[in-house]
Amino acid sequence: MTERIVIIGGTSGIGLAAAERQLAEGREVVITGRDADRLAAALEKLGGAATGQSVDACDETAMRAFFAGLGKVDHVVITATGTSAGGPFKDLTVDALRTAVEGKLVAQTVAAQAALDVLAPEGSLTFITAGSSGASLPGTAGLAAVNAAVEAMVPVLAVELAPVRVNAVSPGVIATPWWDWMPAEARQQAFDSYAKVTPAGRVGAAEDIADAIGYLIGNSYTTGTVLSVDGGLRLNAAAL
């Protein structure tokens, strides 16, 4: 029987790349996104091979109704990113931090809870965090705190929800639309700077993270793991 995978936040970037990868693996793919237009565009890019629904991951009632309407699900990938809480710590506002917590920690928690009633016992939950959680990069205290909070749940849930497998992918600097808040020239300069201090010699692509997600979904002996996929940036972060 064909496995079904749900990708929360599958309309762009890492989520969309993961959807493409999972379709290629022969799984049935369902994606979600808050924006109906972006969802329609993503489904068109996927060639009609996937289905999807516009739903806000922070809306508990809507998420539970969404999963209840699907029936049995084998794997859930949660890529909800929320709003950035980057910048110098002295300038970090409480409102920005609360918004970041709501958009990532709360959204990923709500989505995971909503999936439990329909998630197959032999299935998996995969969270997407970020390398800021352990990179000690100045200006990322807010980002680090939010992502580390998600990562802290992984080993706990791997035990609590067993035999469901629970893992996370922690991406480094990945060239996705997440960076579109920066002007194109400044964005490229940032990517070039990161590439110079990354042992892999480049910034990442969404497909790199999709490959890691695919590994965690497919390896039935891996649980409680936060898989760092950052090209080795964390090893040389002090050079930034």
UniProtKB/TrEMBL annotation:
Q: Which Pfam families match?
A: adh_short_C2
Q: Does the keyword Oxidoreductase apply?
A: yes
Q: Name one GO molecular function term.
A: oxidoreductase activity
Q: Where is the Ketoreductase domain?
A: 3-184
Q: Does the keyword Oxidoreductase apply?
A: yes
Looking up InterPro entries in the UniProt record yields: KR_dom, NAD(P)-bd_dom_sf, SDR_DHRS6-like, SDR_fam
| Domain of life where this protein originates | Bacteria
| Keywords linked to the UniProt accession | Oxidoreductase
Q: Which family is this sequence assigned to?
A: Belongs to the short-chain dehydrogenases/reductases (SDR) family.
* The protein's name in its UniProt record: Oxidoreductase
- Its source organism is Streptomyces bingchenggensis (strain BCW-1)
